[in-house]
Amino acid sequence: MTAAIAALCGLGFLASLGPCIATSGDPGGVALESLWSLGECRPSLVRVGALELARVWLDGEWWRVASTGLLHGSWIHLLLNIWSLVAVGEWAERLWGSGRLGVLFALCSVSGCLASLGWAEAPMVVGASAGIFGIAGALLVARVIGRPSTREQLAPISVGMLGGCLAVLLAVGFFVPLIAQAGHIGGLVAGLILGAAWARLPRRVDHLGVLGVGALCAGLVGAGRWPVGRGGFDEFVGYRLLEEQRFDEAGLALERALANRPDDAALANAVAYAFAEADTRLDRAKALVDGALAAEPGNADFLDTLGWVQCRRGEFAAGLAALDAAEEASDQLIPEIDRHRQACR
User: Fold this and answer.
1) What are phi and psi of 243, to 5 degrees?
2) Partners of 1 in the beta sheet?
3) Does the reported pTM lie above 0.90?
4) pLDDT of 74-108, one tens digit each?
């Protein structure tokens, strides 16, 4: 089972990267960048099942909490997780068997993804680390409180080493923004529950651990269904609504997000752009994009938004001048600028 999970992770990564390389205008660059990032392959990741949080909230795609644990954001991410999986997975498989290891990984991965959803910690979450944290947590609790035969079987595992590694990794997660910390914690808690049940309860009733994780998941589903109190919620929803061209709703959602980060120039620009596309609140849009440009005067995206806002306000000459400046400031052809220019004439 350890090998099977690792193989599925590898296949998931190739399913994300392969189509991205095949359709890219710079396949060599994408292949090289994939060592540390699949930033250019986000659409491909989403197609194969990455947990884009707003798609759950707006489109009801809950199945993504099950698929995203087999996907990864770079070769480094994939190889580190496979190495970690092998380090703990083989011990758990010897102790509980292949079937239970599969259940352990799956439930912990789903629990972690649901925790990430409820915490709204990132617009998209991928990786097997929640499941791996769960396996490690299950081994730790089994090593500490398990039956004598279980503790004897796990005797080569150092409690201090395993517990210390988990503590360090959790501590790092509080300082590195790219780490899905809530996901790690959710996976770990699920693993502790299952490990305690399987290592301590009689075999005939140790299925209570699965019921305990089921209750945990039910609570996390409730928390993650529409977490309006979380800071990232309105931002992630707003950008998703922009993609769907629901501009009125997008502008309102992003405006709420901006209230929590009033100095975020990119977010202010996004609000202004949404209002311009919706052809509403144009005075507010002009003030927001002016503020964004004061922070970043040469930003091509901001200049494009300014030009489009001015065109919407009937200030065609100023709008076209701003769109020309946006094109000059951009290091690549942006079709959006041409679309705005054509509409402004």
Assistant:
1) -60, -35
2) none
3) yes
4) 999 999 999 999 999 999 999 999 999 999 999 99
| pLDDT score for 20 | 95
CA distance 191 to 140: 9
For residue 22, what are its two tokens?
């095949």
Q: Which of 5-9, 44-48, 139-143, 298-302 has the lowest mean pLDDT?
A: 298-302
pLDDT at 209: 94
Residue type, 169: L
CA distances to 8, 12, 121, 158 from 22, in Å: 21, 16, 31, 46
What span, in angstroms and rounded, lies between the C-alpha atoms of 202 and 64?
Answer: 34
| 138: three-class secondary structure by DSSP | helix
Cα 174 versus chain centre, distance? 16
- pLDDT value of position 175: 87
CB-CB contact of 302 with 285 (8 Å): no
Give pLDDT tens digits for 213-222: 999 999 999 9
Tokens of 342: 């054509």
Which residue range is the domain that position 127 belongs to?
2-224
CA distances from 170 to 156, 176, 181 (A): 23, 10, 7
The per-residue DSSP string of 32-59 comes to HHTTT--GGGHHHHHHHT-EEHHHHHHH
Which parts of 68-126 fold into alpha helices (H)? 75-96, 98-119
- Supply the Cα-derived Rg of the chain in whole angstroms: 24
The residue out of 170, 201, 224 marking a domain boundary is 224
CATH code of the domain covering residue 338: 1.25.40.10
- Residues 256-269: pLDDT tens digits? 999 999 999 999 99
CB hemisphere CA count around 143 (13 angstroms): 20
Our measurement of the distance from residue 42's CA atom to the centroid of its chain's CA atoms, rounded to an integer in Å, reads 11
* Residue 220 and residue 266 in one domain: no
CA neighbor of 162 nearest in space, from 92, 76, 71: 92
Residues in the chain: 345
Same domain, 117 and 219: yes
